Amino acid sequence: MLKILKYSFYDLMRSRWNYVYFVFYFLLGMVLLFLNNDISKAVITLMNIIIVLVPLIGTIFGVMYYYNSKEFTELLLAQPLKRSSIFLGQYLGVALSLSMSLILGLGIPFLFYGLFKSNAIWNFSLLIITGSFLTFIFTALAFNIALSNENKIKGFGYAILVWLLLAIIYDGVFLMSLILFEDYPLDKFSLIGTMLNPIDLSRTLILLKLDISALLGYTGAVFKQFFGTNFGLMVSFIMLTFWVIFPVFRMVYKSKRKDF
Amino acid sequence: MVTIQNLHKKFGQNKVLSGLNLDIKEGGIFAVLGPNGSGKTTLIKAILGMVIPDKGTIHLFEKNIKNQSAYRNNIDYLPQIANFPSNLKVKELIKMIKDLRGRAANDNQLIKQFKLEPYLDKKLGNLSGGTKQKVNIVLTFMFNSPLIILDEPTSGLDPISLLRLKDLIQTEKANGKTILITSHIMSFVEEVSDEIVFLLEGQIYFKGTINELKTKTNQPNFEHAIASILTENHA
Amino acid sequence: MNNWVTFLIIISLIITSHAQNIEVCNACAVSTITAAIAQAKDYDTITIKKGTYKEHDIIIDKPLTIIGENYPVIDGESKGEIITIVSDNVSVDGLFIINVGTSYTEDYAAIRVRKSKYFVIQNVVLERLFFGIYLEKSSYGKVYHNKIIGDAVEEYNSGNGIQLWYSNHIDIEHNYVEHVRDGIYLEFSDDCIIKNNVSANNLRYGLHFMFSNNDMYQDNTFENNGAGVAVMFSKKIKMCNNTFKENWGTASYGLLLKEINDAEIKGNTFEQNTIGINIEGSNRIIYKNNHFISNGWAIKVRGACYTNSFTENNFLYNSFDISYNSHVNDNVFDKNYWSNYTGYDLDKNGIGDVPYRPVKLFSYIVNRTPETIILLRSLFIDIIDFSEKVSPVFTPDNLLDNHPLIKKMSW
Fold it and tell me: What are the residues whose beta carbons fall under 8 Å from the beta carbon of C238, sequence distance 6 or more?
């Protein structure tokens, strides 16, 4: 698996798209940090962007990579390699190279800015951690979609649909149901609803950092326990990890049963 | 060497293999023939573990290959369509496959034989179809494995390379290897193969030498023999 | 003020000319404070040496100066009130008073001043108390550099750190109050000045005004209280350069204004409060040069607020800048800096070319269904906020800052 990972990673590190992605984050970071000169505002904007964009790029890129490397995959399948290592290797290659672009793309501007001087380091680590989690989750989802759809166009369609669903539609439905059932105690429901969507989950992590004052204004005891203690942070991380593990398992399962 | 029992496979509603039995002894060149959609590639891919059978067993070197991967160390496979990761250079691809197999290989000799030296530093995406096929052949023959599977090996090759390929196949045969070939070029099949396996509707219709086939179908030449099988069965 | 300075001079003259000094210590001839007071004549000084004095109900009924050396401990053994001042011109300095009795019927205090004038209470440390310093119908006094550390757990059985009741012209400066019910409480007390105090970790309010007018508080810090400062039913209060920090909780505010008229709120910093300022029924208030940083709601307007003006403030990274619960707006927002502003300034005059709408649709939704707060910063919410911004339906149409600043204000 490590060999496949090495070659996939190596392959991707030379792909144009990876650089585009890197340059995009680099410029974004530079512009926000240096033109604005206001680190708190830059972090808030970056967080908003990352939450939406990282999943989109993760899914699209994952699907694209899978379809583009079909021949490579077939070449590998004829070699004495386990299927799980082939796909895990490729998956990790994509997820790692995307995360690298994100980390370097944002890391370099932050370093120039003086990362270690301010408390920006915490914000930065939170950005990187959520960004990487989202990359791993959505790349895994993308591989699942691609493995289940031979048809490229269908695959891309589903990838965008999944993103739309989790990034926007889910929250719309969530909001409507909260308003509809406002007469009932909703704090548990709303927390569970958040847990079930990795984008909302990462958003929660960011809320814990940026909007803790507002969150503590709500009366519910469950909310209070969740946001007022480290409990929320822990649960969020556990759920994010679960969100990585579950699609990866399905990917391995699916790949073992697929014909090429 | 290869023992296949009662192999079934369907893709969706489409039955490709239905109860195929095949036994291939060690040594010699076997051509797998059949009309389009008769299951040639599926059979080969099942042997390679790329297609998972619905039913039936495949034994290679006396071992069931189900959920195994290490047995592919003993197989060299030339895929039908030679598409490679386009970002890699030829040199890197060869190095990578060697690295993945973790075995010594005689790639230099083959590169010389197919005159690939000028292309070693080129990216695979920039190569012509024929050159890609040559790279493909180098990758296949550079390991010294007892079983060689060639899926349409002649496609895109210029006459000189074709000759070299034939030489190569004969050399490997002389080394006591078992070689499985699929091809549409009947003259090529007739020239190289010792025995043919004819697939029809997901089963083995005929297995034997070309001469046996000619006798069976009462046809003087190989191409006509094949044609007569097809017309008989479709009539 | 002038009165008060002349008085100090007179007192000091008196002390240096005829006053006697009585020493109290555990091994001295006079071993209790009560005895010392009984012996003392007007304007004497009583020096209390280091030691522990188990006394309560010490009544100071003549003008005396009581000075503790190296913080002698006065232990009230939770039996009731400890020191009661009922005479003018009393000064208490450098005592460590502990164990005030708790009662549900009487407000026992560590030091009570009753109907007296020209008193000074300074450098006193109070611990394990019920009420700390209680000023009752007293005036022209000074409460300076005291430290009050309570251990209050429940509101109903705890008292306030410094309480003023019908007491005017009092200076409260450089005190530190924590873990009591209200750090500083003023009721019917006018013309007081509250400066440079720190009031933290109190159950209810850091500072609390009721029916008190013309007071001023400045340069104080209010941190992590139930709510920072509550100003209720009072007029003409000046609030300047205070810091309101980390007042977190369901009903937690940096500053709570209720039925307040003609106040000035200038140069204050509101940082990381659930609600920076909560306003109810307050009119003609000037908000200027304040910083609102990382609050849940910078300002929550709960109705019946007219002709207030919010100018030249910084609104930085608040989850919500302004929340409104009505469709009408009679308040002015102008020339503020809003970190959430996304407009541009093409003519480079430092003022954004597009007006800023500080009230978001989502703040209405959260008011209605509080659980929806969990969707804060969701892309979907941004989309509906944007559509509301383009064509306001729920938010008051004229609630605009027409001159939003492009750069943060500094002064």
Answer: C215, C216, C217, C218, C263, C264, C266
Chain B touched by A83 (CB under 8 Å): yes
pLDDT given for residue A48 in this prediction: 85
Range list of β-strands (E), C101-141: 109-114, 120-122, 125-127, 131-136
pLDDT, tens digit, for every residue of C319-357? 999 998 877 788 999 999 998 888 888 988 989 999 999
In terms of C-beta distances under 8 Å and separation of at least 24 residues, what long-range contacts does C49-53 make, across chains too? C49/C23, C49/C24, C49/C25, C50/C25, C51/C25, C51/C26, C52/C26, C53/C24, C53/C26
Which residues neighbour B232 within 8 Å (Cβ) at sequence distance 6 or greater? none
In chain B, residues with a C-beta closer than 8 Å to the C-beta of A11 are 85, 87-88
Instruction: State how far the Cα of A37 lies from the Cα of C9, in Å rounded to an integer.
Output: 54
SS3 A55: helix
Residue C172: closest CA among C235, C120, C125, C237: C120
Å between C180 CA and nearest CA of chain A? 22
Q: Is A11 on the interface with B (CB under 8 A)?
A: yes
Q: What's the complex ipTM? A: 0.87
Instruction: Show residues of chain B in contact with A97, CB under 8 Å.
Output: none
Cα–Cα separations (whole angstroms), residue A211 to A159, C254, C271, C342, C384: 31, 16, 12, 20, 20
**According to the model, what pLDDT value does residue C14 have?**
57
Check: CB of residue C157 under 8 Å from CB of residue C102: yes
| C56-390: CATH, from 3.30.1380.10, 2.160.20.10, 2.40.340.10, 2.30.30.220 | 2.160.20.10
Q: Residue A213: CB partners within 8 Å, gap ≥ 6?
A: C246, C248, C272, C273, C274, C294, C295, C296, C319
Non-local CB neighbours of B163 within 8 Å, separated by 6+ positions: none
Check pLDDT > 90 for residue A106. Answer: no
* Parallel/antiparallel/unpaired status of strands B14-24 and B2-11: antiparallel
**Residue C183 main-chain phi, psi, to 5 deg:** -60, -60
Cβ pair C389, C354 in contact under 8 A: no
> In degrees rounded to 5, what are phi and psi of residue B143?
-100, 150
Phi, psi of A84 (to 5 degrees): -60, -40
- Give the strand pairing for B63-64 and B55-60: antiparallel
Tokens representing residue C324 in the block: 């409104």
> Which range marks the domain in which residue A149 is found?
2-256
Asked if C411 has any chain A CB less than 8 Å from its own CB, the reply is no
* Per-residue pLDDT tens over the stretch C111-170: 999 999 999 999 999 999 899 999 999 999 999 999 999 988 888 788 999 999 999 999
Indicate the range of A37-41, C37-41, C286-290 predicted with least confidence. Answer: A37-41
DSSP A191-259: HHHHHT-HHHHHHHHHHHHH-HHHHTTS--HHHHHHHHSTHHHHHHHHHHHHHHHHHHHHHHHHHHT--
Q: Check CB contact under 8 Å for A213 and C296.
A: yes
For the beta carbon of residue C239, count every other beta carbon within 10 angstroms: 28
Q: How confident is the model at residue B235 (pLDDT cuts 50, 70, 90)?
A: very low
What's the half-sphere exposure (Cβ side, CA atoms, 13 Å) at C202?
35
Burial of A117 (0-12, 13-18, 19+ CB in 10 A): exposed
Domain ranges of chain B: 2-234
CATH 3.30.160.20, applies to B2-234 = no
Question: How much is the pTM?
Answer: 0.82
Conformational region of residue C53, where left means phi above 0, alpha means psi within -120 to 50, and beta covers everything else: beta
Domains contained in chain A, number: 1
Q: Is A48 on the interface with C (CB under 8 A)?
A: yes
Whole-angstrom Cα distance, residue C361 to residue C358?
A: 10
